[in-house]
RNA sequence: CGGGGAGUGGCGCAGUCCGGUAGCGCGCCUGGUUUGGGACCAGGAGGUCGCCGGUUCGAAUCCGGCCUCCCCGACCA
């Protein structure tokens, strides 16, 4: 590709909307351009990278036994009504009507469609195990697109779906997909770790996300340095502090004028946080929910949502608190009526706690579960935080931010039951197939690869996904023989099977061209100039190394291949 | 959806408080001089100042409404 004709230009200053390195470099290098919030065009160099990432995904999914298909983005809304997700997906679903006023959605994911396909193609256990995948455009009207390509409303996703006769068989497909993911991210130059993930209200069992740990990631991950436990904050457990059991003491009121928060109480009464009971109010599907948790802990809303089997959950606002007669600052489950109470399991195993009295400026001492109050739902709903103890080994948990590159998930029979995708087993009985699903955000891998491979001068593409193998820089075209030499090297490199970006632009200073080469980040730079010819031919320099070497012009292509190793395409 | 910020040539910004001919750097075009890490000189093109309305002799600037984009949070099968 001749840069003089390239449909993209580099920028000296990053546009103001970009604030992470990967986003800034993507725009400065002319890889993609924004059209609207969370909607991007890919320019030629960026698109080459996308295609390379997709190719790696295809190779590894095929190796894992996957079969590539292509499903439609336009999907009948009634299919989504059948699965129940027309409502639960809410506003992220992009909906429209055709000219006959039939309702459609633009697919945000493809469980419904793939199950429909499966029903028509498979009736017998003999047709499983099955793994199908596609690389396709998804549409999700996200409440807040952000971070360049990290969260967009239209994006390319590789989604795969497995169908098996039972959970054991599913595990084989799951492990194969998981192994493929490890290889894919490795080949794309994005270091990832699998972390335990929340499987959501929809159910399912094992779920892991592949995270690239970086401070610009939007997810919070808890990690144990001792045993390697890793989990998304939404899913992470921790060992709660166990308190010595005490004989229940008589319930008594205590005046607490103006003391509203747990911190207030701790200071006012001189008790530790873990001897208090915290009240938090939520609303789920229009009904108030009273959450009781020990004062030293915080509520994990994802766990709470799962405990309630709720799809929508929000903190109750002040008006809601008043409407339901709750006394903010002195609320407690003691004597509470008509409101659903959810308790963290910590509250059960702690005795003689301080809790609200449901009267302003009054609290109770010696509140005990069972005697003084009970909950409608008891579950672990507490948030793991940095410094908490590892649920597996008791080591200390730390937090790191992560970008989610992919997600593997044992779905089970949720969709095959709702959409009635059954097969005949060996005994002739009809059973729902057991599903897994496996997603990779291709644009996120693109962004992650830049984030993980850049320096102060620009991108340092991993060779396997570099848009071109070689950046050929020609300097001093007006000097005799330079143009001919550069053209000759350009031709020879291509003849050797290398992809070449050739900076043949006239009248630009060496500094501009070298800076663009560093910004664009091809693995190998070759310079042809009066100086290099004087020195014996062409200069070759790896992007990540400082020093160049000179080889005769006729050797440049062979030397380039050697320096790029077997990975050159 | 709640909170905060911003919309002025392709990019980065000033000008807005205090109304009076729309500016700077980069980029772009022409000519010339340069040529190994973002050259120099001369000339030039390019902007309904986000949109609609109002105030005024006069609005980028003041007032009202709306739209868009960014950030934090909520949300994210």
Identify the notable features of this structure and list them briefly.
569 residues; alpha+beta; BirA Bifunctional Protein, domain 2; YbaK protein; Rossmann fold; 3 domains; nine-stranded mixed beta sheet; 16 helices; RNA-binding
Molecular structure report:
Strands 3, 7, 8, 9, 10, 11, 12, 21 and 24 form a nine-stranded mixed beta sheet that branches. The protein has three domains: 45-236 and 399-450, Bira Bifunctional Protein, Domain 2 (BirA Bifunctional Protein, domain 2); 252-379, YbaK/aminoacyl-tRNA synthetase-associated domain (YbaK protein, Alpha-Beta Complex); 468-567, 3-Layer(aba) Sandwich (Rossmann fold). With 569 residues, the chain is an alpha+beta fold. It starts with 20 loop residues before the first helix and ends in a 5-residue tail after the last helix. The protein binds one RNA strand of 77 nucleotides through strand 16, helix 14 and helix 15.
Summarize the structure.
The protein is α+β, with helices and mostly antiparallel strands and 569 residues long.
């Amino acid at each position: 590709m001749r840069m003089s004709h390239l449909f993209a230009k580099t920028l000296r200053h990053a546009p103001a909307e970009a604030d992470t390195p990967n986003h800034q470099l993507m725009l400065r290098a002319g890889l993609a351009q924004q059209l609207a919030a969370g909607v991007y065009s890919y320019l030629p160099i960026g698109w080459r990278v996308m295609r390379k990432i997709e190719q790696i995904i295809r190779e590894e999914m095929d190796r894992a036994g996957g079969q590539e298909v292509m499903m439609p983005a336009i999907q009948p809304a009634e299919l989504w009504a059948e699965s129940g997700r027309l409502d639960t997906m809410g506003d992220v679903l992009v909906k429209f009507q055709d000219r006959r006023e039939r309702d459609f959605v633009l697919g945000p994911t493809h469980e419904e469609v793939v199950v429909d396909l499966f029903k028509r193609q498979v009736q017998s256990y003999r047709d499983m195990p099955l793994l199908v995948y596609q690389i396709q455009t998804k549409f999700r009207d996200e409440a807040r697109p952000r971070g360049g390509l990290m969260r967009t409303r239209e994006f390319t996703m590789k989604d795969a779906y497995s169908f098996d006769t039972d959970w054991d068989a599913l595990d084989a497909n799951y492990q194969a997909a998981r192994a493929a993911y490890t290889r894919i991210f490795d080949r794309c130059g994005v270091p990832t770790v699998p972390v335990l993930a929340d499987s959501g209200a929809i159910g399912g069992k094992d779920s892991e996300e592949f995270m690239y740990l970086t401070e610009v990631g939007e997810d919070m991950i808890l990690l144990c340095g001792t045993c390697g436990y890793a989990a998304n904050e939404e899913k992470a457990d921790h060992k709660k502090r166990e308190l010595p059991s005490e004989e229940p003491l008589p319930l008594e009121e205590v005046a607490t004028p103006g003391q509203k928060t747990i911190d207030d109480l701790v200071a006012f009464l001189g008790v530790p946080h873990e001897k208090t009971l915290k009240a938090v109010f939520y609303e789920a599907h229009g009904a108030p929910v009273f959450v009781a948790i020990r004062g030293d802990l915080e509520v994990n809303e994802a766990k709470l949502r799962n405990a309630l089997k709720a799809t929508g959950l929000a903190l109750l606002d002040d008006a809601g608190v008043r409407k339901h007669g709750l006394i903010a600052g002195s609320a407690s489950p003691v004597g509470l009526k008509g409101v659903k109470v959810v308790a963290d399991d910590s509250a059960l195993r702690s005795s003689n706690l301080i809790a609200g009295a449901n009267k302003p400026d009054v609290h109770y001492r010696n509140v005990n579960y069972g005697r003084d109050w009970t909950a409608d739902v008891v579950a672990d709903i507490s948030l793991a935080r940095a410094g908490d103890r590892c649920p597996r080994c008791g080591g200390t948990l730390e937090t790191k931010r992560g970008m989610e590159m992919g997600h593997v998930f044992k779905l089970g029979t949720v969709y095959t039951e709702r959409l009635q995708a059954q097969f005949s087993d060996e005994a002739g009985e009809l059973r729902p197939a057991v599903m897994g699903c496996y997603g990779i955000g291709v644009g996120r891998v693109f962004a992650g690869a830049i984030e993980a491979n850049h320096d102060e001068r620009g991108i340092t593409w991993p060779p396997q996904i570099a848009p071109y193998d070689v950046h050929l820089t020609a300097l001093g075209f007006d000097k005799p023989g330079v143009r001919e030499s550069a053209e000759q090297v350009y031709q020879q490199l291509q003849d050797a099977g290398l992809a070449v970006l050739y900076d043949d632009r006239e009248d630009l200073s060496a500094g501009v061209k070298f800076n663009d080469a560093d910004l664009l980040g091809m693995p190998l730079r070759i310079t042809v100039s009066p100086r290099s010819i004087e020195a014996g031919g062409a200069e070759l320099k790896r992007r990540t190394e400082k020093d160049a070497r000179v080889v005769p012009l006729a050797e440049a292509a062979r030397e380039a291949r050697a320096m790029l190793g077997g990975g050159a395409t």
